[in-house]
Write a structure and sequence with these properties.
The protein has 282 residues and is of the alpha/beta class. The protein has twelve helices and nine strands. The protein has one domain: Vaccinia Virus protein VP39 (Rossmann fold), CATH 3.40.50. Strands 1, 2, 3, 4, 5, 6, 7, 8 and 9 form a nine-stranded mixed beta sheet that branches. A hairpin with an 8-residue loop joins β6 and β7. The longest helix is centred in the first third of the chain and has 16 residues. The protein is globular.
């Protein structure tokens, strides 16, 4: 079977990624508090509420400090958290307890190490983060196939990729210096970009929506829908911060409508975070 074991490159990247998140664990909790990232948070919750079953067991693969797990616990789901960073999971445990909630399990493991989870154990899964860091298509498909295996029949998953088309748009305000070399424009248009720790905040993988959708189809999932997490607000970080500070009522309306519009074809292909809703039919 393809990708039955993580390759050596995947093991090395896991170590690099674990080191980064262990050293920056608190930053990941704070990230979704800023006015621009709240667009991503709101649209993600919109998709979960729209597509996921109303109850059941959910596994959050790549849970980080547990922002989404906590929201799911509040809604009455049984939630298990899995992350490769012990420090991220420590924050998650503390935040869950502070909210007077109880998670089912905390697993400190890589997404490449899901073999210990039993077949057909979960009604839903989040895979938001692991595929950002795996250069090998075999490793990414292994994660997807293991996610498929542990879901019950008709189980749903939300799977995320970093989108080069959206990153190109965001680069104007965030990292324009990269594009002093004009060849990088075509690289971002074509996708399938693998960045080392020297080139990015840690080992990262960026791709395009068509390539991501093709990869997911190889894992056996039916694609239900896909969305752009930042919707029509993609790349407008500075403007959203200003709205938040000086026009909060308009800011809230933008957040609400960006979430509702995140699946529209005219927006979903050009956001930094690509969310794909999939279903296990067999």
């Amino acid at each position: 079977m393809i990708g039955s074991l993580p390759n050596q490159g995947g093991i090395l990247m896991t170590s690099e990624v674990r080191k980064y998140y262990d050293e920056n664990a608190e930053l990941e909790w704070q990230r979704l508090n800023n006015p621009y990232s709240m667009v991503e948070f709101s649209s993600t919750m919109y998709l979960i509420e729209k597509y996921f079953p109303k109850n059941g067991e959910i596994i959050d693969i790549g849970s980080g400090p547990g922002r989404y797990s906590i929201e799911l616990l509040k809604k009455g789901y049984g939630v298990s958290l899995l992350d490769l960073s012990k420090n991220e999971l420590d924050i998650a445990k503390r935040k869950v307890e502070e909210a007077n909630l109880i998670a089912e399990n905390y697993y400190c493991r890589s997404a490449l190490e899901l073999e210990f989870l039993e077949d057909e154990s979960f009604d839903g899964a989040l895979v938001m983060g692991p595929l950002y860091h795996l250069h090998s298509s075999e490793d990414r498909i292994k994660v997807l196939r293991d996610t498929y295996r542990i879901l019950k029949k008709n189980g749903l998953a939300l799977i995320s990729y970093i989108n080069t088309w959206g990153a190109l748009k965001a680069s104007v305000g965030e990292f324009p210096e990269v594009f002093k070399d004009i060849e990088h424009f075509d690289r971002y248009k074509n996708g399938d970009l693998k960045f080392s720790t020297e080139e990015s905040f840690t080992s990262t993988y960026f791709t395009t929506p068509p390539l991501a959708l093709d990869e997911i189809k190889k894992s056996g999932f039916e694609i239900v829908s896909y969305a752009g997490a930042e919707s029509f607000l993609a790349g407008l970080s500075f403007q959203m911060k200003n709205l938040y500070l000086y026009m909060p009522e308009a800011y809230e309306n933008y957040i609400k409508k960006a979430s509702e519009y995140c699946e529209l074809p005219q927006y979903r292909d050009t956001t930094e975070h690509l969310h794909i809703i999939v279903k296990k039919e067999k």
